[in-house]
From TrEMBL:
UniProt source species: Streptomyces sp. 900116325
Domain Gfo/Idh/MocA-like oxidoreductase N-terminal residues, every copy: 11-130
Protein name: Gfo/Idh/MocA family oxidoreductase
InterPro entries, per the entry: Gfo/Idh/MocA-like_OxRdtase_N, Gfo/Idh/MocA_Oxidoreductase, GFO_IDH_MocA-like_dom, NAD(P)-bd_dom_sf
Highest taxon in the source lineage: Bacteria
Domain GFO/IDH/MocA-like oxidoreductase: 147-266
């Protein structure tokens, strides 16, 4: 069966799940990049929600979006080049693998999978299908982050020495009343997996390879299977030491990264997204002020989708996929393993046969669903 005809410059895109993250972030990104991608199909198990999304898509300029309640049927009927997934985490592995096997590229909300074992299933599907799977880590793609990464890479800021990564948010009991939240089997973890992962992914993106994690976690307020707060000490290959805090217990909400380097401190303070104004550089005594970025591109799904489309045009692996994205998930697994066992965990330590490879709770008696 041949693919449906389309202008050579536009990819056929489909969305899976039509909830708030798709309507509020993926649809605007596709609309902003309509000259490069055409939304042709949507999948949702709720027909009413699906119809409402199709009407919203029409208002955004995508008329005649095909509606499906079954992913396999959509992949067969509409043959998308790109599938954007915004369903609860429990469905990510299965849906991503199906899309990859159909030959499509995938952009999936975090976490891409619930475990390293599931991630490696996706890596195997990439090898067989010809597509790539990227996870949504949109904070990497704002111009402020791109600029900071370049200053760190070219040595302008000097060697990174000390870093802090803070995701201190607030979620009440009503938030956890949603059945799939707070459960290992459906969400994969607490704020370590579902909230702070954006921020420490950016930290890892800026500082590079991590080598060791020592962590703690607790349930202090919420009656959930997973944690509601975690903390970690991290050592990087370049020698820098960092602290990481992930919380849903913090009324004064903020997202923050600070990196103290030999020649300057770089600091990002925001909540759910950043622009250049959210970044600040403080030079060390006697050091020159680092240059400012020349453009202001806010972190967003649009910024990441642009990078993915650029990679598709070039025929190269997109950023936020493969070993790069796996490293962030491995960091989460290492944080949980250290927190639950009380031991330091080294990069590369968690592999097949390790209980934390198969599940983030590691079947620990105090933390697994069986407790």
């Amino acid at each position: 069966m041949s693919s449906p005809s389309r202008p050579a410059s536009r990819l056929r895109a489909a969305v899976v799940g039509t909830g708030a993250i798709v309507t509020g972030s993926h649809l605007p990104a596709l609309a902003a990049l309509r000259d490069r991608a055409e939304l042709v199909a949507a999948v949702d198990v709720d027909p009413a929600r699906l119809d409402a999304f199709r009407a919203q898509a029409a208002e955004a300029g995508f008329a005649d979006v095909a509606g499906h309640t079954d992913l396999a049927a959509m992949l067969t009927a509409d043959r998308p080049d790109l599938v954007l997934i915004g369903t609860p985490p429990v469905f990510h592995r299965e849906q991503t693998v199906a899309a990859l096997k159909s030959g499509a590229w995938v952009l999936c909300e975090k976490p891409l999978t619930l475990s390293l074992a599931e991630y490696d299933e996706i890596a195997a599907a990439e090898d067989g299908g010809g597509g790539y799977a990227s996870v949504v880590f949109q904070h990497r793609y704002g111009s402020g982050a791109v600029h900071a990464r370049s200053l760190l890479d070219d040595g302008t800021l000097g060697r990174p020495l000390v870093a802090h990564c803070q995701t201190t948010w607030y979620r009440d009991a009503a938030y956890y009343a949603v059945p799939w939240r707070g459960r290992w089997a459906s969400e994969g973890g607490g704020p370590t997996m579902g909230h702070g992962i954006h921020q420490y992914d950016l930290l890892l993106h800026l500082l590079g390879e991590w080598t060791e994690v020592r962590a703690m976690a607790a349930r202090l307020v919420h009656d959930t299977e997973s944690e509601d707060v975690s903390t970690a000490l991290v050592r990087f290959a370049g020698g820098a030491l960092a602290t990481v805090v992930n919380s849903v217990l913090s009324p004064d909400e903020t997202s923050r990264i600070r990196i103290d380097c030999e020649r300057a401190t770089v600091e990002l303070t925001h909540l759910y997204g950043h622009s250049n104004d959210d970044w600040r550089y403080t030079s060390a005594p006697g050091a020159s002020q680092p240059p400012a970025p020349t453009a202001d591109v806010p972190s967003s799904h649009t910024a990441q989708l642009t990078a993915l489309l650029d990679a598709h045009d070039a025929g190269t692996r997109p950023p936020g996929s493969g070993p790069d994205a796996r490293s962030t998930l491995e960091f989460a697994a290492a944080l949980y393993k250290s927190a639950f066992t009380g031991a330091a965990v080294e990069a590369g330590e968690i592999g097949p046969g390790d209980p934390f490879y198969a599940a983030m709770h590691g079947d620990h008696p105090d933390w697994s669903p069986k407790r």
